[in-house]
Specification:
The protein contains 4 helices and 5 strands, in the order E-H-E-H-E-H-E-E-H. The chain is an alpha/beta fold. A 5-stranded mixed beta sheet has the order 1-3-2-4-5. Helix 2 links the parallel strand 2 (22-27) and strand 3 (53-58). The longest helix has 16 residues, at 32-47. The protein is globular and about 30 Å long. GO terms for molecular function: protein-disulfide reductase activity.
Length: 107
Amino acid sequence: MTAKATTSATFEQDVLQAEGPVLVDFWAAWCGPCRMVAPVLDEIQAENPDKITILKLNVDENPDLAMKYQITSIPAMKVFKDGEVATTIIGAKPKFALEQDLAEFLK
């Protein structure tokens, strides 16, 4: 399973109006660390399908959202809850570290 993509056109519905927490993975195809963290996020999504939704946003294809959310380095992950950024995670991390960062959303 691969995380579903969101875009500028679908971001409001996919993320801001979503029920429950949504992690948005800001990434780019040329980013090695982004490719490393993607399967880890897929695992977390597969193990917690009813607790968190994980979406990918390509910063090269959606520069307006990258700018709006001040993405200056990738991978960058932002967890949105009730339409607001609840937490930000910068950089590729191993699964246990990401799960610690996301603990409050995976309860």
